[in-house]
Design brief:
This protein is mainly β. Helix content is 0%, strand content 50%. Strands 2, 4, 5, 6, 9, 10 and 11 form a 7-stranded mixed sheet that branches. Strands 1-3-8-7 form a 4-stranded antiparallel sheet, with no helix packed on it.
Length: 125
């Protein structure tokens, strides 16, 4: 099993920044794909960013390109989401996800096997 624990959420002003962390434990390997999703009340869960443990180019939703950066620290088994220039529409519960093998597309939440509990991000205007 893989356990995922998110942290770093909170309340920030529009234009501000937050850094989310996802600590993974268990048998992760270089084949794993890690990602971030978000879900606002009344809306569908939305793909935000994804990256492979082994490297390669990360993927981003169009709505966050240029503002958010996903990264990883293999020694700490941790994935990060640096969020800059935050907007009120970024307000959501952000969840970390993991999958043991590469996905043809990362955007479909139901294809991912492991999930964290989520952390609330609120951007005030």
């Amino acid at each position: 099993q893989v356990q995922l624990v998110e942290s770093g959420g909170g309340l920030v002003e529009a234009g501000g920044s937050l850094r989310l962390s996802c600590a993974a434990s268990g048998r992760t390997s270089s084949s794993y794909v890690m990602g971030w999703f978000r879900q606002a009340p009344g809306k569908e869960r939305e793909f935000v960013a994804g990256i492979r443990w082994s490297g390669g180019s990360p993927s981003y939703a169009d709505s966050v390109k240029g503002r958010f950066t996903i990264s990883r620290d293999n020694a700490k088994n941790t994935v990060y989401l640096q969020m800059n220039s935050l907007k009120p529409e970024d307000t959501a519960v952000y969840s970390c996800a993991a999958h043991p093998v590469p996905l043809a597309t990362m955007a479909k939440a139901y294809q991912w096997d492991y999930w964290g509990q989520g952390t609330q991000v609120t951007v005030s205007s």
